[in-house]
Amino acid sequence: MAIHATGRRRPARPGESGFTLVEILVVITIIGMIMALVGPRVLNYLAESKVKAAKIQIESLSSALDLYYLDVGRYPSTSEGLAALAQQPAGAQSWNGPYLRTGAVPNDPWGHSYVYRSPGEHGAFDIVSHGAHGQEGATTDTAADIVSWAR
To answer: How far apart are the C-alpha atoms of 36 and 19, rounded to whole Å?
Structure first.
């Protein structure tokens, strides 16, 4: 309610009530503090979920490679790559694919192609996702490669 020139209170007119600038600034400051506390945790969960998704995709690709091996008698060569799971390579007479549900080789959760080597350095084949950095040779924990031989 506003005070009239005579000293008596008069009822507020429509449009005169509302929040002061100080009240609005206090609310914005509180929201900013909450976001500063919650934001990093949410981003960390997002990064962890992408790593888990990459591990699951690598497991799925490994299973598809094992099915390919049972049918053809060998794993696809490095030059044939993971594409041999979706399209029959030349020389694979008993190929019974596609071995992937979508019929196409997926990219890792960061949009990069998986690296496939056969024979691998750590087994019959190696599958690698270079993670968010997308390059080989990263040394930090946040940029670690996701690999098929570390299950």
So the answer is: 25
